[in-house]
Write a structure and sequence with these properties.
The protein is α/β, with parallel strands linked by helices. The chain has three domains: 152 residues, Chitobiase, domain 2; 298 residues, TIM Barrel (Alpha-Beta Barrel), CATH 3.20.20; 199 residues, Four Helix Bundle (Hemerythrin (Met), subunit A) (Up-down Bundle). It is built from 23 helices and 17 strands. Strands 9, 10, 11, 12, 13, 14, 15, 16 and 17 form a nine-stranded parallel sheet that branches. Strand 15, helix 12 and strand 16 form a beta-alpha-beta unit. Helix 22 runs antiparallel to helix 23. The longest helix is centred in the C-terminal third of the chain and has 37 residues. One of its GO terms (molecular function) is beta-N-acetylhexosaminidase activity. Pfam families: Glyco_hydro_20, Glyco_hydro_20b.
Length: 694
Amino acid sequence: MTVVALASAAVANAQPSADLPLVPAPREGAALPAFAIGRGIAIDGGATDDDRFAARDLAEALRARGVPVVTSGGGVTVRLLRRDTPAGRAALQRANLAFDAAMNDEGYVLVAQDGRVDVVGASAAGVFYGAQTVKQLVDGDGPRARVLGARVRDWPAMRWRGLHDDWSRGPLPTLDYQKRQIRTLAAYKVNVYSPYLENVFQYASHPLLGAPLNSITPQDARELADYARRYHVEVIPEQQTFGHLHTVLRLEKYSPLAERPHGHALAPDDPRALDFVRTTFAELDSAFGSRFLHIGGDETFELGRGRTADRIRREGLGQTYVDYVSKVVGALRPLNRKLVLWGDVGTNHPELVATLPKDLIAVPWMYDNVPSAEKWIKPFRDASMETWVAPGVNNWWRVYPNLGIALPNIRLMAREGQRLGAVGLLNTTWDDFGEQLFESTWSGVLFGAAAAWQSGDCDPDVFLRRYPRVFHGDAAGHVEAAERDLMAATALLTRAAGTEMHEQIYWMDPWSDEGRRLTPRILPLASELRLRAESAIEHVVRARRAGALREPGALDAMELGARRLDLIGMKFQLAHEIAAQYSLLLAQGRDSAGAAAIKWYDLADLSGINGRLQDLRDVHVENRVLYETAWRHENRPAWLPNVLARFDVSTQLWVSRIERMNQVRAQWARTRRLPPPAELGMPEVTDAPTPAAR
């Protein structure tokens, strides 16, 4: 029997891979009996600098969880081996496992059995990824942790597995947090991190650019890229070269380059546009040193609405777009980098895809839950272009990411991308209105990591059961329950409001014209929305109390998202109750008998100790404190006042209404008269309950 046949037989005779609760799930895996760590875990890092780094990374991760790591004499020995060494060959022969050619670049073999864990890779990346799997096989924290037995042969389905992170719409992570992102992404076998740049890089050739106190230096970029390489992560900067450049073009110096004054897109016929591209990308290339550069190119909505209008009428929008992209590629060719382009042209003008430069990498993006993604991907496959696919974590416009859309979307794009020949997946976060927290996106980010590594279909339900154990250290199901409650609450709010712009609803005054329009839609589902959100809060608290504390920032962001959803439901409920009760009191007070029946506490219930108006003030303040804490955990402070100002405006709205209602109480005490609701800015509720019902 050959070694490969023995490998197949050995895997077939063990437990199915479903018994290995790993993220990503391995290509081939079988569970074996678990074993105790005894006096600790000893790690042999092998003979190369890369493998010794992988050993140190493994040791640091285990120590952070309180797992004893010893230099020798441990109850468990972990060996990181290369396939072409005597020890590596012996380990493979002993396990009757072998390498396929597909495993050479990033694959590994792992056997965890009877107090020993052997990881064998053909490359530094393979050994490193095997070590990341070891982290997950160490089950539990502290000295009572154990090692799950396993036999694994594993390699990725997609060569490039990435995260695209929006640095340009407000939240800009600190350098320390960016490094933490790199470590965490690498632990789940992600090998691309692509920061999105509009005007947050400090260019020597453009000293006016780089938002004050909210931009990164070339030194920061170089340090991050060097740091990421140790973790086998490529940092690919995206600097927009066409649209999405308003924060540059609003500057008077750069406005002449725009399609329209102070607009959003560069004018493609202005030669200074290409000068801007050349100079910025030369500096990005020097700072990041990546094999790739991302030239953006999405959502050029302004094209043809200004200086190029006549050309567009003559030649067409698509042709003008393709011509400019080709010029950008030509201008950057001396850098000798692979250029990455968003795939808008494939959707908008598929007939022109074949005319694009063939050495571009196309990234079709699509963020919805639809039956098929073929129409986004196929134009590039048909043109024989290298293609990556881009799903999204659906965090934009939300107070918490909508996983009910994100997970199916990521699943679809990964599965269809693999089927249609895409070699990469670039999962995306977007911070459109500047208040998103990255810590709230980890579940969507890690599902993207799993879907890109695993071959074929990646089941969100399986992921939601597994990821809390390996990421949070929660084996009791609290985090999964919280995530499912948040998914349900988000779906309820979308159904009730008829929109996914939940941030807008969060800041909405329920007594405004738009708030009054939404009130009858939201009220019927507000109780269920709140119960789901409050259940999520309870599950987060239980997870903390049970010791699931590996990722406190992510739990904090989850709780904050739940509290913001709860506030939305509460705000519409209490605002309606206040208006209804006031309308009832107003009706009662129109005759002397009714007025005599009104007690001081009827108005105090609206504004007083524990009054409903005070409730709305207090909860906005609570959310503000939690939000500021969560922001400072990950981001630089410069943009934060923009968001806190919205909390303050919302809080002050209810403070002013408290003061006005207190004046009404004083007026009532003197005159036994109440002003009409319109004078207080509230609607009159004509179907208010009767006094008996109240």
